[in-house]
Design a protein that fits this description.
Layout lengths: L1 H9 L5 H25 L7 H31 L4 H29 L2 H4 L5 H5 L4 H9 L2 H12 L5 H13 L2 H21 L5 H12 L12
Length: about 220
């Protein structure tokens, strides 16, 4: 149904076929990401660096592909930019932005509030989801903390007491602060890419403001 809708809408555009091709490519990338998302849960917890790499790979293919990359690509193609340039510019801006968005979403799971997110705090922990946040905590933990975290995630379920304890360990090991640093670095990468697009000051500030909504925890300054 989504392809049919896109095909009808794109038929009115000069580069409509490129827009439809980008949509179909997005579909494929999300499918790849879904498979990777299932596979990452099999990653061993005793190699946190590998877990970080695998998780970020899921973010790229599953989340970034449809959340940030494709929407930017559709806009650039609709504006008349050639498909090769559109793809290159889209990845430069949208890929780090999509990674930052998913990292921010995972972080909100432990530092946000249910009233703001609409989801119970610690949902990923209850599910035993393997996240970059968990990997960073294991990486920075002492032997006792590391064993506690691994045992918690290898158990069949986690109690509310364990959810609170896991969040404490994320804080104590510096994983939460590390995640904030990752988000800031990725946002700066995306923002720098926007600044190389040779847009007018007005349009550059509009695009930066729009993209900054994906990382609300980052204070963004745009030109007046």
């Amino acid at each position: 149904a989504s392809v049919d809708i896109a095909d009808k809408a794109a038929s009115k555009l000069t580069h409509g076929s490129d827009v439809v091709a980008a949509l179909l490519n997005m579909h494929r990338e999300v499918e790849v990401g879904q498979v990777l998302d299932l596979a990452v849960e099999l990653n061993p917890l005793d190699d946190p660096d590998e877990l970080v790499e695998a998780s970020l790979n899921v973010f790229r293919w599953k989340t970034a592909s449809y959340t940030t990359i494709a929407p930017l690509e559709f806009g650039m193609l609709a504006a008349g930019i050639g498909k090769d340039d559109a793809r290159k510019q889209t990845l430069a801006v949208g890929l780090p932005l999509g990674l930052a968005f998913q990292l921010a979403d995972d972080l909100l799971d432990v530092v946000g509030s249910s009233s703001n997110t609409g989801k119970p705090v610690g949902g990923d922990i209850r599910e035993g989801k393997r996240t970059v946040l968990l990997a960073d905590a294991i990486n920075a933990a002492n032997d006792t903390q590391r064993r506690e975290l691994i045992d918690m995630w290898e158990a069949d379920s986690r109690s509310e007491t364990q959810v609170k304890r896991a969040i404490e360990l994320f804080e104590q090991t510096g994983a939460i602060e590390r995640s904030r640093g990752r988000i800031a670095d990725l946002w700066n990468e995306s923002k720098t890419a926007i600044e190389t697009l040779s847009l007018s000051e007005y349009h550059e500030s509009l695009l930066i403001e729009a993209c900054s909504r994906f990382v609300p925890s980052i204070h963004v300054q745009t030109r007046a």
